[in-house]
Amino acid sequence: MSADPRLLDVAAVDAAIDAIERRLVDLPEAKALAEAEVAYDETAAVCSDLTDKRDRAERDAKRFEDEAATFEAKLGSVAKKLHDGSVSR
Question: Which pTM does this prediction carry?
Answer without folding.
Answer: 0.56
